[in-house]
Amino acid sequence: MDDASAGISVAQYARRPGGAARASRKQAAILGALVLAVLLPTFISLGLWQWRKAEMKTALQIELDTRSQDAAIAMPTSLADVDSLRNHRVILRGTYDAAHQVLIDNRLHQEQAGYHVITPLQLAGSNMHVLVNRGWLAAPADHRQQPVAEVPAGEIELSGIAVLPTQRFFNLAPQPTSGWAPVWQNLDIERFRSAVPYPLQGLIIQLDPAAPGGYVRDWPRPDERADRHLSYALQWFGFAASSLGIWAYFLIRRP
Fold first, then answer.
1. pTM for this prediction
2. Residues whose CB is less than 8 angstroms from the CB of residue 240 and which lie 6 or more positions away in sequence, other chains included
3. I need a surface site. Which of 89, 101, 133, 154 has the fewest CB within 10 A?
4. How far apart are CA 64 and CA 37, in angstroms?
């Protein structure tokens, strides 16, 4: 073998590791791009979801703050447009239906378990009823026992904030489809309508703290934990930026 041939062989051998490294880097870049194509939209979507939840809670709080300062509205005795009454203060006169009062289980107040007391009120001069949330009542130490929630007798006048019922909830066990149960896991207004022999408004009245015949009424704010949703959103956006930065770093760095 002459010197020239030996030089070419050595040069070719020297180039092989570099070529293998470049091929390896190219494969890693492609694999990283595929992973990034999955992670980046996921992180951004989750961030936007949390951001929208925070915006929704803030908008509801602004609406409540504005509408609750307006003059109180007399509760209609015909089926009402719930959106027009939502978050308004309303005045009601009528008689409670104690026979169809329910306790909503697993409601917390200052980390203590209890119930929300829901009592239908028959509006004076009509057969129309509306559900009144009379507040939170502590659960007995023995949860198998039910607390006694006294119902005011006779015609009364009260005021409160009209709110829409929760549309999505989770039941720990199947709920009965017939008969009457004094304790429910969640307040399902359609279930309530199917169980009572009278028409029912499609909203709930959160009884004012100063109104008589109620229990603890420390109602949660609609924007409660909105700042937490914003924090989660920023975390997801941070994950998106970090994953993009890591991929770019390994793409451009030299071996």
1. 0.67
2. 39, 40, 43, 44, 47
3. 154
4. 41
